[in-house]
Design goal:
With 266 residues, the chain is α/β, with parallel strands linked by helices. It has one domain: Rossmann fold (3-Layer(aba) Sandwich). The chain contains 12 helices and 7 strands. The strands form 2 sheets. It has a 4-stranded mixed beta sheet. Helix 4 crosses helix 5. About 5% of the residues have low confidence.
Amino acid sequence: MLVVDCDPQANATAGLGFDPSTSGKNMYDVFMGGTGDFPRVAMQDIIKKTASGIDLAPAHLDLVGAEPYLYHASFPTGVLKEALDAIKERYSYIFIDTPPSIGQFVLNGLYAADHVVVTLDSGSFALNGVLTLSTIFSDIKDDLGKEIRPDMAIVSRWGEGIVHPCVQPGAEERKDIFTRLRNIFYKPSEPSPEDLKAALELKNEKERLLSTLAVIKQLFPSVYTVPFSPAVYEAQKRGIPISHFAPDSQAGIAYKTIADEVMKWI
């Protein structure tokens, strides 16, 4: 498996344990090689082996400076596809990570991809991002003649900061015999105005999440949620995929289910 990091933030690169500031050829060189008089750099010349066994085409902050040059390429949107065509037979799966903002790197990724997975977080602006993407996919069809049909949406950090919608508040407390005895002999205090306000905010947030999820499910053929888990951040800090660091965590189990679905695509 190969991960191609086309994001100047280089999160995928760092997440696989490779220091983005390390000198050496990277995706900047591949993209620049498709423009002007810059020497061509083949994809196989930048690929690194990572500790997890996943091959990586690393990103670098220099990618920020490459994007303006792509507009001068003979076919700006096809630079990545051309580079990948030379090595694609070596891999069963090639994952392309693109920036969150629309630009040449995203267009290159979409044009090169056989399947599209849209990742979202559970924040308030997730739905706005989905609706914007729908417009962009339509524009790509008009401009490039390739129809983009996203196969899957992944909503990450689901339920961060709140009780998961599938978990009833107080379920664990009711199982506690000491709590039940205390409630028999001591009348619980009345909730304060702050408590009531917090409960209302929690209820509204749950309703917002479920409403957003319902709309996303109408726009994508397959939708998965990944629960918030500190294990994800620990895995990222160590440069190890969650599948290797904490496969039995809630997030690890969710990503395993997603991986099983993706593996059916070939």
